[in-house]
Every structure is written in structure tokens, then in C-alpha cells.
Amino acid sequence: MKQLQLAKQFLFFLSILVACNLKAQQLDPSNLQNLNVDELTDEQVQKFVDQVESNGYTEDQLLLLAKTRGVSDIQIQKLRQRIAKLQSGRSQTTDVPSTDRLREDLGVENRRLANDPFALIIPEEKEEDSEELEIFGLSFFKNENLTFEPSLNIPTPKNYQISAGDEIIIDVWGASEQTYQLTVSPEGSIRITGLGPIYLNGLTVDRATRRIKARLKSIYSTLGENTFADVSLGKTRSIKVHVVGEVERPGTYLVSSFATAFNALYQAGGPTKSGSLRDIRVFRGGQKIGTLDAYRYLSDGLSDGLILKDQDVISVQPYGDRVKILGEVKRPSIYEISPEESVEQAINYAGGFTEKAFTERLNIRRNDGNFKKMVTVDRIQFGNTAMQGGDEVTVSLISNQFKNRVTIEGAVYQPGEYAWSEGLTLSQLLEQAQGLQPDAFKDRAIIVRQNDDFTLSNTSISLNEVMDGEKDYQLQNEDLITIKSIFDLREAYFVRVEGEVLKPGRYPYIAGQTVEDLVYLAGGFKESAAKSSIEVARRVGEQNNQNQQASAEIFQFPIQESLAVAAEDAQFELQAFDLVVIRKSPFFEDQSMIEVEGEVQFPGKYALRSKEERISDIIKRSGGLTSFAYAKGATLIRQTEYYATDEDGGDTRARIRRQELGELLERDTLLDKSQQDFKKQEPIGIQLEEVLKNPKSKYDLLLKEGDVISIPKELQTVRVRGEVLYPSNIRFDNGMSFKSYIARAGGFSDQARRKKSYVIYANGSAKKTGSFLWWKTYPRVEPGAEVIVPEKPQKRKLTPQEVLGITTGVATLGLLVNQIVNQL
Predict the structure, then answer these.
(1) What CA–CA distance (Å, rounded) separates 417 from 402?
(2) Minimal CA–CA distance to 430: which of 444, 445, 442, 414?
(3) pTM of the prediction?
(4) What is the rounded CA–CA span in Å between residue 208 and residue 214?
């Protein structure tokens, strides 16, 4: 009695524990006041979403439901983020945003709703992300194909001023010949032997040439008469310039003395996103000497031509006003504008309009204090309307609506689109379309018309009346005229020939066609054709099949090799959908080939003499077994039904089997790989020793086309594979048992399913392990056999639904036992 009472208490406690556990791990949509999203697992959130969605609610309705159940705004925001992460496949290992951040987001949302009462009805219009639009010109300085290196293979610029570090080349020829290569010293002079220093710093090449020639006359007295001199610039000096301001890599750079501001800007990585391309200032000696506008070079190819000097400073200012130009322009981008630049100039920066742009007017979004406003600019005002910072110009597409189009399709010689004009009639349009084709269905045509409100209306007409001039129809813009062919309004006519012809299949029906004509088109008879009886199956029409019993009307008659038929059958003409069948002659047989391989005297291919030929007959024809043959391991390899071409199934059945196989694999792609392994050939275990002892017995199988008889040499090993510790090939020993071979392979593994072990013998037959109660009878092992130890099936974990069902059942059982005990 005491044990019974303990059992009752245990079961009752178990039922309460299970119920509490289930309640703790489930979300009840009707009780969400105390919901804490941070304590929920991904699985609990997903179950909750699935439960609500199964009731037909969307995600937004789910969150609204949570709010009506008393869930706080912060918890709703957290729940929204958890659901989004689950749907995007991200793990819940990322940090949940802080409560302060969520409260801030909710405050922004509440303020938006307060400022815009229609925000719940009209979706908030998102500002286009500026990151998606490039700032015009910045990528120019990131182009790896550009270097902006100044070309040194050009004449020296006239305004180039010589300075320290430049190389001066003086070439003297004529009565005297001499070449000088001199470098300007830091003091700005060059020194020629026999002459004093010649000061050249700050001079242009022309002035330096005149000064040098004047000094050379003291050495070459005939200079200018029969002695001549040329002065040129050799290697140019390098200078240091400083790039500062809104650039990617501000600093000091070493550049050629021919370099411009563009060369220095490129080395510095170009302006940043905050930098200006139109206000690039160059300072020399503390004074501004010029301003570079990169748009002149990028848009028009014009350069300011300002050559830098040593210690020049290039300062990139922050950008001024920028505008967005979107839509149908050739270079949609963000552009920097100068004060008072017009809409027309901004469109020119964007490359102009595309061919699909609506150019009559533009709509501009413009900032107006604390608000935005729309500005509409007509085409004639493009050059007079100034752009402002923050403007957003969207160039629209032209409408797809046609002003003067009608379309005709179907049985006319030139279907297509045509220009519509006031007063155009259907007869005039037919004339433009080169008229009706002979197969046009003239009893009816259709005009589909687009109404003013873009709805469609249908008008049926008679082409006979139009062609006879009895009636005509005024067409309107966007009318569609459809004229069907007589062939469009009926089933396609064909005839079919099957059986022993060279090209069986469908052929177009031709009036007056005979059976002989169809056989001729099909390439004639095969040698196997039975010409004594040609059969034509004709479809039974509704008028001839009132009792609905007949499915076809059959005609039979003979035909000759020359495709001639008897006089009484010569008038038989085929009708649409007729089926002509030419059967195979019962006296025709193709040679059936089989193959014998392995240990026979004459291995090779053999033709079967008759359908009754057996294994013993072929072994006899092949000269019998050799002395090395292992008869117990002989195998008959036969084509499977999916590839069979024997006399029973023929090519047609094999084709059908292969088609079924393809459909199966295509339909069920989740099949296990082993289930999809449909082999072309499969071995059949035979007992060759019994075949040779008792020819024509039940062991002596009839042979079929494609069979292969394989007779191996005497085998001396046994292969052990599967769930053993060391799968391997083991030498056959007549005194060893099944378990001995398993022991040689290291023994069974932990996953071995011992009672399902089996042996595959050399001839392809197999034998499994027998069992009775706890006794196991293992199969014997022979030479060439393969011992297979399968794996235990994987144990599947219970799903939450299954666990719920089991625990519910246990709890119910506990309550039931408790009730029964109380009644005792």
C-alpha cells in the first residue's frame, strides 16, 4: 500500500513538472503583459511567429497585437529586431541594442507621427542615399590608368623660368665643336671654363639663350659667322609643393618643375567627399596666385595651365553648394555649383539629356527654410533659372503612350504598327498592310479599343463586309486589330505512322494523301516490316459514334515492296489524325549477341542460334572451361529493364523505362544517392557447376541479347568491409569461419549491426546471417566472397512536437493512474 502511494505521488509530481516545463517554454499570444524579449530563445520567438502566422496574421499585425496586449514599445522594438534577424538567417549572438538607443528610436518615430498625421496612411518617403550617387569628379583622381605625369618630350614652355637644379645643354658646331652639359647651381648660375659664372636664375629659356651666346663670343670669336650655338634645357629640376585642405593625403610632394596643380592633386589622392573641385587655390610666397576649377577640365577639357614652382601651396577648400541631378541624364550624379549657375549649365555638367528624357519642363525639390518646396521650370527658362544648394533635379522619362498608333496582327502580309491619322479606316489600314493573306478567317475580326479612361472595349466585325465595300470602320489611336488564320481556329491536322518504317512519327496532313504516300515520306519499310497487313486506325467523329462505344475505325489491306496496293484499295485516302501501323514480321529475327569472358578456351562474342539456347550450350561452343576456371564464381551479367533491348521488351519498352527513370529522378531529387543508382547491368548468381552437370535443368538459364557470362580464375582472397575496425582483403583459408574473418579485420566496430551481416559470393548471390532467439547462424565464406557488416541506423532526435506528445501522454497517464488509485 505504501509503494502504491509513492507511485501515485511520483506520477502526479511528474505531470505537474511536465506541464510547468511546457508552459515555461511557450509564448501565449493572449498573455503578453510580462513579455521580456531578452529572455526568449530564437526557437521560442520562431514558434511564436509561426503560431501567429498560422492564424493568418502578418508581421505588422503581430506587433500591433502585442501592443494591444500591453507590451511596451521597447519590447515591441526588440521583438521586431529579433524577428528580422531570424528571417535574415543571422544568429542571435549579436548584441541587442541598448534600452537608451531603443527609447531614442521610439522618440524619433513618435515625433514623426506627431508632425505628420498621415504617416500611418502614406508611407514615409525615404531620402535617397547620397552614398549611392557619386560626387562628380572624385573618381577621376582614383583612376589607376591616369598618372598626370607631365610629358618631358615636349618643347620647353616659353614661360618656363630657369632655376637651381635645371640642366642646361650648350651645343657649339661649325668652325668649332663643343658640347656643354651644365647644372644651374643653388646660386642660380652656370660656369663655363674660361668664362665667369653666368647668372640664369628666373630667366626664360629665350633670355637665357641670348645671355649665354653673348658670353660665348669671348671664347668663340666667329660665333654667328661660321660658328653656331644652340641652348636647350636638359633634365628639369624637381620641386616641392604642399597640398593641404580637404584632400585624401595632405602633405608635401616632390613633382617635376613642369607639373601643374592637377599633378599634385593626383598624388595627394584628390579631394575628399567634403572637398571642393571648383575652389582649389594656389598660393606662392604667401599670396594667392590663382584658383583652379576642375570642372573646366573634366567637362570641357580646358586646363588653367598654371605651372607650379618650388614651395607652392595648393589648398582644397570645403565644397560650396551641391545639387543632385537624377533620372534621364547621361551622368546622374552630385554636382558642385558656383553661385548663379543656371539649370542649363547643371544639365550640361550631367552630360545632357538622354534620348528618353522629358525635356519640356523640370521639377526641382528645393529647401525653403525648415521645409521643402517644389519648383517647376519650363524649357525656355532653363538658362535663366539659377540653381541653389541642396536642389534635387529629377529628369523624368517620356510617356510610353502613343499619340498616333494603330496595330494590326494576324493573317495580313505586313502585320505591325502603323501611323494613325484622323479619318483612317480599316480598309485603308488593310491596304497599308498589303492586304489579307489567303488563309485569313474573313467571317470575323476583332478591334480592341482603348477608351479615354484606359479601359478596353471590344468590337467584332466581318471582314467580308469590309472587303466587299459594304461597310467600313473608323479607327482611333491605339486600336488593335486582330485577324485570325483559319488554321488558328482549328486543331492542327496531322497523320501518324508507327512501326517498321525508317522515320516513324507525325507528318502534316495533306488532302488526297494515301497510305503509300505516307510510307514514302517515312523513308519506306524496314526489312522487318510485315507488308501483308497494313492497318489504319481512324478517329471516330461525334456524328459516327452516337453510342460512345467505338474508339477507332480500323482499315486493313496489304501493300507491296514497291508501295503499290491492290486496285480496290488504291482509292483509299487518309484523313486528318489517321494512324498508320506497320507491324513487325513474325518471321524476322535480328541476330542476338552475347559475350563469354574469362576462363574459357575461346572467349569472345557469340550469336545465339535460337531463343532456346542456354548457358551450357554457349560454354560448349566456347570450348569449355580452362584448368584455371573457378566455376563457383561464374556470373551472368544481364541488362536491366531500363536498358533492355531484348526480344521480349524491344527498344520501345527500354525507351519507356528510361523515360520513367528520368522523370523519377527529376521529380524526387531528395532520394538517397544509392536509391538513384540505377545500373545499366546487374549480375545474376548462377551455379555453373550444376549447369555443366545437368544441362537444360532449372539452373541452366536461357540467354538474352546483351548477356555476358563471366568466369573468373580461381580466387584466393576474401574481402571484409563495412563496420569493422580494419576493412581489408584476407587470404582465404578453408578452415576459417565467418567470425574468424571478422576477427582478422579487427572485429566489429561500435556501430556494427551484427545480426544484419551478410556475404556476397563471387557469382553474385548473397546470404544473410540467420538468427533464432539469441543464437546467430553466420553464412559460410568461400573464395572471392565479400563479407559486409552494415552500420546501425542513425537514431533520430525527437522533435519538440514529439516531445510534447510524449510528455502530454505521460502526464495524462499519471492523472489516470492517480484517479484509479483513489478509487481503490
Answers:
(1) 11
(2) 414
(3) 0.51
(4) 10
